[in-house]
Amino acid sequence: MPTPQKSTVRADIQGLRALAIGLVVLYHLWPNRLTGGFVGVDVFFVISGFLITGHLVKAIAERPHPRMLLGFYARRIRRLAPAAVLVLSFVLVVSLVVLPATSWAPTAWSVLASTFFVENWHLAAQSVSYLETASQPSALQHFWSLSVEEQFYIFWPILLLSVALVARQRAARLLPLVILVVGVLSLAWGVLHTRIDPDVAFFDTSARAWQFAVGGLVAFMPKPAGLLRLPLPWIGIALIAVASLTFSDSTPFPGYAALVPTVGAALVIAGRSEERSTWSWGFVSRFGPIRWLGDVSYSAYLWHWPLIVLTPQVLGRDLDLRSKLAILVATLVLAALSYRFVESPVRRSRKLSAQGWRSFAAGATAAAVLAAGAFGSVGVASAATAAENAAIIAEVSNGESCYAASALDNTKCGDPFGVIDKDKLPASLADKPIAWQDNCIDDVTENTNKLCELGDPQGAETVLLWGDSHAGAWSSAFDIAGKINHWRVIVAARNKCPSSLVAPNATAFGDRLPADQQAWCSARNKWVLSDVAPRADKVVLANLWANYVFPNGSKSQSIGYERVAQGVAALGRTVTVMQHVPLTGPTLEKKVWGPDCLAENAAKDCSNPVAQAYPASTSAVFSRLVRDGYGQQIRYVPVFDRFCDDARCYSAVGGVSVYFDGSHLSHAYSSSLGPWLAKQLGSAKKLAVADFRSPGA
Q1: How far is the C-alpha of 24 from the C-alpha of 19, rounded, in Å?
Q2: 468, 540 contact by CB (below 8 A)
Q3: I want to staple 476 with a disulfide (CB 3.0 to 4.6 A). Which of 232, 303, 343, 671 is the partner?
Q4: 505 and 512 in contact (C-beta within 8 Å)?
């Protein structure tokens, strides 16, 4: 059997751990200062690959038997589970106290995903959504890297033991070769996947396995020659520093770029820097504070991110320098306490280590408790949402109400655009409409057929709401309208995929859609027309109409919608189109995030001149439809007066934020439009130029 270098606690590795956690924490607190600090996670991957491979090969050399896996997994449970369970429990409980009800269910699902080591895939499914790129992040987002590590810990021992059992006497030569092959294949896939879909590749375990493999190969390397032992680690530190200072969120990652910090970490470990050698990395790392930070790095990693995410919710404002420094101190204090009273006692517990089944039982019990708590939170969130919807229906159906859109029609309310209750103002992206709450909105990077089933499930009439993410934003209004009018409501919404039979190839501000996404969008809309529309009595299209560029310009834009109108007419139905909501900034790209603006300014200051909110481009597609003779076939619902007076369009109406981000209706305001929408759909007029001419034109 091969003889890898012993993986006892080394000062140089503890120093490398300290460097890695320092980079990650500082990056998360000051992302604009240390733009590439995220590579600290890559350093951890290499360290894990080195240490785990060393432990496994030593165990295999002593007794290559499948039972050794049980001991390995039991030790991993005792090492990693205690602090993780503590932090997961903390986040679950605190989220129920400080976050809005709309965030409870997403947090609970993240707890479940983190508990069962799939948070990376959970985030990969969300990260592709263009709405999430500027969203309030999950307090458990950082568990993605722990999930990747846990998946590695499950796969790696089985692979190495299988090779040893099959190869027997040849294992000494085959093990490093197998690790090399896995590393090369993973690196190739990582580079390719980063080019194809960087958002998903970032979280992809198979695109990261090569980093663990690099650490594994270092475990087989002999001690370097004396002349190399001093410079090798410092070259590695320099590579990590270069990546930390020059990489940014725009760097394609992982891919070739990930080689820089990965090779850097490998050089530090391979150098085997000695503590006695002055000016060596090992000498620097032996100092108490650095070594201590390396010891508590795992707990520090677990605690820092929830504190960064949850503290603004407690304070009711963004983090300033003082609060960031307080978080830094709190991270170190909590890490020290977790390490002293949770990590170390459980890891060294004689009672748990005496019999392996006890570790598994303790881990399973903790997972079951967390899962029960998470499912309970989802249930509480669902009940809270149902109660909120019932309250909204009662509120907005009352003619005396001044809540949200109701204030527009009640003369007793005064100026509906004048006030906002900042104490009740949700954070950006916290008040998403029901399509997001129920996770039934498709993303342009997915090729699925998600649908929402809303309104009255026993309704005698069915309404299909079909379009892009703006259709999703209207989902709460259609849900309330369906309950009032006893409609079954089907929502077919996909981000960046308008309800046209010609797929766009870009947005109006230059964000291009790859060919596969165009094909998926086209196939999705054909499916909605052929399989979903026949089930509906009314078909309503809602899109951010001006947002798209089509392959052959405006002509193909109108052709795609005309084909939809023709297809719906062939079913004996009529198409109704919704005017899109006002733009919040001077252009489609330059949006003003409603909740953020309202949190810092007077409500009246968060508004947009009508000429900017409704430029001619917002109604250009309707103009062409009328010109092409489709005015008699299509009905139209104007929405201008639900957001604007004669001069400006507002981000707050009736004390409620109109948007949850920079362009999409909030759940609260969308819901309040339900009674109005219930009336408007029944009396929609035929499309005519006089009805939709831009108010600002």
Answers
A1: 9
A2: no
A3: 671
A4: yes
Q: Is residue 588 classed as helix, strand or coil in its secondary structure?
A: coil
Within 13 Å of residue 338, how many CA atoms lie on the same side as its CB?
A: 27
The helix (H) or strand (E) run that includes residue 657 is strand 656-657
Rg of the Cα atoms in the chain? 29
Q: Are strands 607-609 and 648-650 parallel, antiparallel or unpaired?
A: antiparallel
Task: Look at residues 436, 423, 421 and name the one whose alpha carbon lies nearest to residue 313.
Answer: 423
Rounded-to-integer distance, Cα 217 and Cα 425, Å: 53
How distant, in Å, are the alpha carbons of 130, 275, 389, 401, 406 from that of 394?
A: 34, 72, 9, 9, 11
What is the phi/psi pair of residue 125, to 5°?
A: -70, -25
Q: Which residues contact 417 (CB under 8 A, 6 or more apart)?
A: 603, 604, 607, 645, 648, 650, 652, 653
Q: Hey, what amino acid is at 392? A: I
Q: Which residue in this structure is represented by tokens 């006892």?
A: 8
Angle between helices 209-218 and 40-62 in degrees, nearest 10:
50
Chain Cα centroid distance, residue 212: 24
Say whether 203 sits in a helix, a strand or coil: coil
Whether 22 shows a pLDDT value over 80: the answer reads: yes
| pLDDT tens per residue across span 359-388 | 778 878 888 888 888 888 878 877 776 676
Scanning the structure block, which residue is given the tokens 């993605």? Answer: 144
At residue 263, the pLDDT reads 97
Q: Is the pLDDT of residue 644 over 60?
A: yes
The CA angle 301-305-310, to the nearest 5 degrees, is 150
Distance of alpha carbon 399 from alpha carbon 413, whole angstroms:
11
- Taking the C-alpha atoms of residue 457 and residue 358, their distance in angstroms, rounded to an integer, is 48
Q: Rounded to an integer, what distance in angstroms lies between the CA atom of residue 637 and that of residue 181?
A: 60
What is residue 6's predicted lDDT score, i.e. its pLDDT? Answer: 47
- Compute CA distances 54 → 159, 164, 215, 269, 604, whole Å: 14, 14, 10, 12, 64
395 pLDDT tier (thresholds 50, 70, 90)? low
Secondary structure (DSSP) of 347-397: HT-HHHHHSHHHHHHHHHHHHHHHHHHHHHHHHHHHHHHHHHHHHHHHHHH
d(C-alpha 404, C-alpha 493), whole Å: 25
Instruction: Provide the 8-state DSSP code for 6.
Output: P
Amino acid at 610: V
- Which of 24-38, 115-129, 546-560 ranks highest by mean pLDDT? 24-38
C-alpha triplet 615, 618, 622: angle, nearest 5°: 130
* Tokens of residue 243, six digits: 């990546």
DSSP codes joined into one string, 495-514: TT--S-SS--SEETTS-BPP
Instruction: State the Cα–Cα distance between residues 446 and 509, nearest whole angstrom.
Output: 22
| DSSP, res 99 | S
Query: Are the CB atoms for 266 and 214 separated by under 8 Å?
Result: yes
Mean pLDDT computed over 445-469: 89
